Structures are given as C-alpha cells and as structure tokens.
Amino acid sequence: MRQSLLPALLAALITLTVACGGGTPAQQDGGAAPEALITLDGSSTVFPIAEAVAEEYGKAHPDVRTPTVGISGTGGGFQKFCRGETDISNASRPIRPAEIEACKTAGIAYIEIPIAYDGLAIVVNPKNTWATTITVAELKTLWAPEAQGKVMRWNQVRASWPNRDIRLFGAGVDSGTYDYFTEATVGKEGASRGDFTSSEDDNVIVQGVSSDELALGFLPLAYVESNRERLKLVPVEDGKPDNGAGPITPSAETVRNGTYQPLSRPLFVYVSRKAADRPEVQTFVEMFFSRTDLIQEVGYIELTPQIYDMARKHFADRRTGTAFGEGGSQVGMTLEALLAREQ
Amino acid sequence: MKRFEFLIEWALFLCALLSIGTTAGIILVLAVETFAFLREVPITDFLFGTEWTPLFATPSFGVLPLVSGTVLVSAIAMLVALPCGLLSAIYLSEYADHRVRRMIKPILEILAGVPTVVYGYFALLFVTPLLQRLLPDLAGFNALGPGIVMGIMILPLVSSLSEDAMQAVPRSLREGSYALGATKMQTSLRVVLPAAFSGITAACILAASRAVGETMIVAIAAGQQPRLTWNPTLPVETMTAYIVQVSLGDTPQGTLEYRTIFAVGMLLFTGTFLLNLVSAWLRERFREEYA
Q1: Chain A neighbours among B 250-289 (CB < 8 Å)?
Q2: What residues of A are in contact with residue B56 (Cβ under 8 Å)?
Q3: CA dist., res. A215 & res. A232, Å (int)
Q4: What are the pLDDT digits (tens) for A269-281?
Q5: For a FRET experiment, which of A176, A281, B173, B194 has its CA 20 to 30 Å from that of B234?
Q6: pLDDT level of residue A252 (50, 70, 90 thresholds)
Q7: Nearest CA of chain A to the CA of B233: how many Å?
Q8: B245 vs A contacts (CB less than 8 Å)
Q9: What radius of gyration, in Å, describes the C-alpha atoms of chain B?
C-alpha cells in the first residue's frame, strides 16, 4: 500500500501543475479542475431546459467541462442538494418545508430562481364539436381513481355531451406532467384512473387524439403548439372568477398572466449559496436569464422580462431562502403575485 | 495436423456453446427476476387478475389484459395469414408454372424482409385511416389494423414453409391421383394437402409464435392501454408492447415495477416456447413417411 502512494501523489501533483499552469482564469479561480464541474439534478420536467442550457454553456466554454444534469425528480434532487452533493437543484415546484429543514440542518443555503412556465393543455380531436369547454370539476370526475371502469362515456361527464365512448390519453405515470395534472385536477399527486393510454412519448398522445374523434387527452402545452392542426384545445374553467372569468384557452399569454389556471405552473432552479460564488456557476446561471430562446425551443413558456430581472437581481444580491412560505406544490400561484408580495 | 483438427473441433463446439449459453443466460435472468417479482405478487393475482396497472399509485398486477391483447392481435394476424398463405402455397406448389414460381416466391419473401418498424407505421398511418372510412368508430390505436398488417408480415412464413412441405410430397402420389381420374383441385386438396399436413401445421404454429412475439408493429399501432376486451376496434396493449413501454420510461431498476417486465417476458417466453414444442411434436407425430 505504501509503495503505491508515491506514484499516485506524483501524478496528482503533475495534474495540479498542468491544470493551474495551462488552465483558464475560470478554472484557476474555481480551484482544481474537478471542482470546476457544475452538477445539477432534480425534476425531469426541468431537465430539457437545464440540459439545453448546459449544452450551450459547454459550446461557449469549450475549456470547461460541460455541466452534468441528472434526473432524480424534484424530491430526489433536493435530497442530494441538501446533502451538498449538487450545485444546482432543478424543481418543478417550490421547495417543501421538510426539504427547507433538511437544507438548514446541513447548513446549505440556496437562491431560488424561477426560470420558465410549464402549461398543460386539454386536447380533443378537431372533429369533436361538443367539447368546447371543460371545468376542473369535470376533469376530476373524468380522471379520478373512482372513475375507472365507470365513467366511460362523454355524457357521463356533462349530460349535454353525446352518449358515446370516451377514449383517454395522458402523459406517462413517471412524468412530472402526470404528477402535476393529477395534483391540479384530482387533487392528489399520482392519483388517477388506470384505464387510459399512458405514454412517456408525447407523440403517441398526439397521434392517438388526432386519429380518434372520441378521444380526450392532456399534454404539455408547448407540444400542442407544434401540432396545432391535428389537435383542438379545450378552454378550461376553474370556477374562480378572480383569476379570469369563464373558460380560459391556454396560450403563452394566459399562462403568463396567470389566468390559465390551474394547469400551469412555474419551474425553478435552486442554486447553492456556496456554488454561487464560483464564477463558472455565475456565467452558467446567467444563461438561464439571457438564453430564453432555449426555453421556447424545448417546449416551455418564457417568464416576463420583469421576472427575469427580478430573478437576476436576487441572484446578484445572493438573496437566499424561498419566496413560498408554505412550500410544496401550490396550484394556482403566479409569479407576479409573489413579486408583488415581495416588494 | 492432429492438433489443428482438435482446435477446429473446439472452435466449432464453442460456437455452438455460445448460442446455448445465451439461451441459458436469458432463461436464468428471466427466472431470477420473475421469482423476485412473484415473492411480492401472488402468482394467482398475476395470472388471473383482470386489471393491469403496475405503474399507478394503486397498482394491480393481473396480466390477463395483456394476454388478451396479445391473443387478439395474433388471432387477427392468423385469420389473415392462414387462408392467404395456404392458398398461395397451393397455387405456387400445384398450379404455378415453374417460371412463375421462380419469380413469385422471392417477391413474396421480400415481405418478410421489410423492417417491422415500417410495418408498424404502415398500420398506423395507412391501414388504420383506411379502415376508419369503413368503421367510423374505430380508434386511432386499435387491434385490427396492426393485426391485419402483422398477418401480411407472417404470410410469407406460412406460404413459403407450406409450399416447401407440399413440394416434398412425392410425385408418385400426384400421379396416382391423376391416374384415378382426379382433377387438379381434387389432387391438391385431398391428396397433397393431407400428405403435407404435418409440415403445414408446423409452419402455421411457427407463424403464430412469431405473431405472439412481434413487438414493433403493436408498440407503434395498437395503443398502450391494457384492456381486457375482444373488441378489435379499441386500443389494446400486448405483452411485448408493455415491455417496450416500461423500457422507454424512467422506471428505476430493481423496483417491483421494473420486475413486471421480466415476469411478463417470462410468460411470453413460456408461451412461444410451448408453441414451438407443439409445432415440433406435430411434425413428428403426423409425419407421413414416403420411401
């Protein structure tokens, strides 16, 4: 054992010399080369954005290792984050009280940054003439676990709809989209009927709904945008007049102004306070604010410029903690409201 | 020289061992994971349950909807492949001119060379919309379209193997039949066909086992909804399509959900294996020996 130590030490010394001597300023400030790697983990919903930003960052800084992005889910991501294993945690909901506690115990402070909106759309076949609106209560009737094998026809959802079969399509059970849909309609995350076509591949849902007059499905809103002629959007009525009266058609506009509720939500990244001092992390995080074209590209909705400005300011001020007092998934919250509350 | 022979013998033996070893490995992996699965889910629930929702919050592990989906699609495929395949085999073997046969047979066999993913999209984007004109209530994903396309896919298997079996019937039998005054049709159906029965049955069962194991067509075009039904116009999910679906998602390794695919795989393997055994047995049992 003792004998093998010397060559290893020598090797480490050489690596260090090379890294410091030939390295870029970013690497020198960040210390030894391995530390320069930015690690992200968390929500699969946020993953496409984080991955796109990481790729662009890697292209712009070829001398630095491209950040790694894991998919452990929002909860799994926070577990690692609060153990200090990752620099940035991707989240499709605000941090929960238990997670706040865990981070506090471990002495991990974090900066909360909203990066985009995620919207869900209810879609039917273009030939469907009757489903012109749907209420959240009707969605619950249709998708609740009790509906399995019972609510099988359109007129069971609304009496004026035809007495014909209804065929359901939805996101796969492992996806964040499914979690949020069940949370927002049925009221419990992960609780739904089991007798629908559930696919991780959104194209299957598009194909299924666009080729079946009797189909109804839910999809990420951005996915509908690129299949506009093949699907028909159903405006959703949440029964709360204070955030826009009547049924609201989903669009980037109605998601941003918070009237398309409850099927839209903000997405976040949480940056560790310690990592925020590293210049490469600062450059990386800045790209979330400046490269908003990437957000559209991977199928999400950009925030308003004011919110990006606010987030940028929070990050520059190293403002730690969460703006969401209660924490966890909150259906029907808008970032504007939060902004107002903060000022 | 002797040593060289010895080396070659060993190399040949190792080649044979490789495929046997692979089979044994597959069976072992399937068995181990299935055993782990069955420790958590009683085998009666698995085999006789009528609801298959292993990934949901309240999971049930009844495999019957997947079995019914598989049987339904395969049955439709066989309904297409058997008559068409058998009739074309009779034509090719008994009626077709030598030159015609030499041209048609390879063309028919091209069908078997089309990648199944192409067949899948053919079913989804061509056959199903065509059928929807006849049956307006047909769902976009259904058992009928992929069933028919799968029938077309296994047709060459049926016709080619059946034709081989009929060709193997000795000429003297046909000549004897003609000498008794039988027509061509009578000779084909009452002499040649029964004489080639074992080979034809074996071909059909092989085709059935191919249909049961077919993955890509059903994964693309049949939908992904486990449903216990015999209605071919609705979306169904076969055992193979379920395995594909889980493999594509991000189900964590080593969980019960993950093991379901091995349990389903084991059932599928057992099914096709039994079919192949029956096919081999039939071939032996009903073989007509002509010296």
Answers
A1: 250-251
A2: 173, 190, 192, 194
A3: 11
A4: 999 999 999 988 9
A5: A176
A6: confident
A7: 11
A8: 172, 199-200
A9: 23
Q: Specify the pLDDT at position B250.
A: 65
- What is the residue-level pLDDT of chain B in tens, covering all 291 positions? 678 888 999 999 999 999 999 999 999 999 999 999 999 999 999 999 998 988 887 888 999 999 999 999 999 999 999 999 999 999 999 999 989 988 988 888 888 889 999 999 999 999 999 999 999 888 889 999 999 999 999 999 999 999 999 998 999 999 999 999 999 999 999 999 999 988 899 899 999 999 999 999 999 999 888 989 999 999 999 999 999 888 876 677 778 888 999 999 999 999 999 998 988 888 887 776 665
Q: Give A173 to chain B, closest Cα distance, Å.
A: 6
Closest residue in B to A203 (Cα–Cα): B220
Given the structure tokens 């509906």, which residue do they identify? A147
Rounded to whole angstroms, how far apart are CA atoms B164 and B171? 14
Residues present in chain B in total: 291
Q: Which residue, A237, A240, A250, is CA-closest to A121? A: A250
Quick check: B119 contacting A, CB < 8 Å? no
Question: Is A197 close to B225, i.e. CB distance below 8 A?
Answer: yes
CB-CB neighbors (< 8 A) of B129 in chain A: 211
Q: Which residue of B130, B224, B257 is the best one to mutate when testing the A interface, meaning the one whose CB has the most A CBs within 10 A?
A: B224
